[in-house]
Amino acid sequence: DARVTQTPRHKVTEMGQEVTMRCQPILGHNTVFWYRQTMMQGLELLAYFRNRAPLDDSGMPKDRFSAEMPDATLATLKIQPSEPRDSAVYFCASAGDSYNSPLHFGNGTRLTVT
Amino acid sequence: QQQVKQSPQSLIVQKGGISIINCAYENTAFDYFPWYQQFPGKGPALLIAIRPDVSEKKEGRFTISFNKSAKQFSLHIMDSQPGDSATYFCAASSGGYQKVTFGTGTKLQVIP
Lengths: 114, 112
Prior knowledge:
The complex is a heterodimer.
Chain A: E1 5-7, E2 10-13, E3 19-24, E4 31-38, E5 42-50, E6 53-56, E7 65-71, E8 74-79, E9 88-95, E10 104-105, E11 109-113
Parallel strand pairs in A: 2-11
Antiparallel strand pairs in A: 1-3, 3-8, 4-5, 4-9, 5-6, 7-8, 9-10, 9-11
Chain B: E1 4-7, E2 10-14, E3 19-25, E4 33-38, E5 45-50, E6 56-59, E7 62-67, E8 72-77, E9 86-92, E10 101-102, E11 106-111
Parallel strand pairs in B: 2-11
Antiparallel strand pairs in B: 1-3, 3-8, 4-5, 4-9, 6-7, 7-8, 9-10, 9-11
């Protein structure tokens, strides 16, 4: 059963430290998304890629967040420096090519910045 | 600007009852309306979806009702079961692209 894999599942770090979250999309899916989930804001789209090219990162604080796809099997989301307000669950999702192909989410990385 | 408004925030229903979650949207370009279900510690997963050319879609105990003129849609869960206890998100997208705008979520609890 194909699924999106995210690592780490949990991350606790101190303010100011760099955080890198990784995602392995489903093989063959060409669209990859990063979402952030908080109680206050719900699910916010941070960035998404199609065929490894960034299409939209308007939801991401540019000064500290960066998202990349070094290859088709790996997407990364980096926060540098991290702040307590970045504490949230970060989800990666991937989708195939077909019209309205559903999003397949990973189980998220729970980030706590102290 | 919240493009998809969802209510209620939380819902408690007795086993066997009907759970109803409502959503409203503003962007008339939206042409695809999925619902996602999320269990604790998991990512959301697609439950059911509808296009605006139909007014209702049913899959098992789950039904989406869609009112294009009112720009509203709702999820009905018939014969609700404790295993349906989860957070439900309505969503919308346009143009066949998977860039999806999510509602704020409804936490459903079905009590025995």
